[in-house]
Amino acid sequence: MSELKQLSPPSQLLVRQAAAIDAQALLAVNSPDRAWRTSVPVTGCWHLHAGFSKLWQHDDSSLHHFGAEPPSGAFAGAIVWLPKEKKLTDYLLAALASCLPADAPVWLLGENRSGIKSIHKQISAPYGAVQKVANGNHSTLLLTRLSTPTPGFDPESYRVCETLAQPPLTPLKLASYPGVFAYPGIDAGSEMLLQHLPQFKAGKLLDFACGHGVLGAWLQRQQEALEVTYLDVSAMALKACAKTLELNGLRGELIAADKLEPGLPQFDVIVSHPPFHTGQATDYTIGQQFLRNARQHLTPKGELWLVANRFLPWPELIEASFDHCQRVAQDNKFAVYRAVSQVASPTARRGRR
Q1: Which GO terms fall under molecular function for this chain's record (predicted)?
Q2: Tell me: the pLDDT tens digits for 85-109?
């Protein structure tokens, strides 16, 4: 019972309405939690969030699929936790239309503040009318049916490409898909960080929370000898990043994760615009974990560069980890911060005093 209380509000509603979910062999899409599984029959789970997918791996890896495209398998219906982005909802429903049979039920779950109350205006063929099943926990459960399967889902039809001037080089080509941060272009914070980043020497660089890869690709084009690793929690972001690299003739390692894992190597530079949302909710967890652990993933004298909204408490966390924090630039919304990893840790230095 205590585990159920920890479920997201939409998942709590799902558990309460389990009797209304009368289909078998269901595909769960975008589920942020898993304790509801004992109440509803699912045979597969499609995740776009690497952190959520790892929760499912602990239960049954055969259920788990992480990626920007739907899993293969014979599913009779689906339960979709609606994302906050309408374009991503369109993407998910189009993908499901390619892997579900005719008349397959598709249940839609979401918090009322996420726009689920107006979803009936967004859903159209090949889906039927949207029916309300229940509401509660500030959430709503809806049902629609797939009238006509549409094989041959093409993710590339959802790709948007833009360019970003990078003198004296040719413009940087950026690919993006629904659900990627700042879709379809570049956000003002990352643009501000690019204006203040130096040209780094050859070495290893990590673009943390890389999105479509704008920071790492920009720096890699300036210095071809940089070995760049791109890390993001989102399958859609990693797909976009891979395409950005391809369009610009670049190479890099892509990692799906929501934090700096212990097995990662040390880097000479880490750049980031850390997130502070998970779905609709404000969530400082990823940013906090990143800043607490960033120093141990830097080489001696390695540099951390990041941009963030000024109201976020990141300077205090950087100061606590690095024993200093340089504010490089700021405007009325964003600030650019820099810290350098010292040869000795702050603790060790205090011990010698």
Answers
A1: 16S rRNA (guanine(1207)-N(2))-methyltransferase activity
A2: 999 999 999 999 999 999 999 999 9
Closest CA to 111 of 77, 78, 86, 136: 136
Q: Which residues contact 334 (CB under 8 A, 6 or more apart)?
A: 188, 189, 192, 307, 308, 309, 310
Among 127, 23, 33, which residue's Cα sits nearest to residue 78? 23
CATH topology of domain 159-352: Rossmann fold (3.40.50)
**Which tens digit of pLDDT belongs to each residue from 151-168?**
889 999 999 999 999 999
How far is the C-alpha of 242 from the C-alpha of 257, rounded, in Å?
15
CATH 3.40.50.150, applies to 2-152: yes
Report the predicted TM-score, pTM, of the whole model to 2 decimal places.
0.91
Give yes or no for a contact between 145 and 43, defined as CB atoms under 8 angstroms apart: no
The CA distances from residue 105 to 111, 130, 147, 316, in Å, are 20, 11, 9, 49
CB neighbours (10 Å) of residue 288? 17
- CATH fold match for the domains 2-152 and 159-352: yes
- φ/ψ of 238, rounded to 5, equals -65, -35
pLDDT digits (tens, 9 = 90+) for 195-245: 999 999 899 999 999 999 999 999 999 999 999 999 999 999 999 999 999
Contact 46, 70 (CB under 8 A): yes
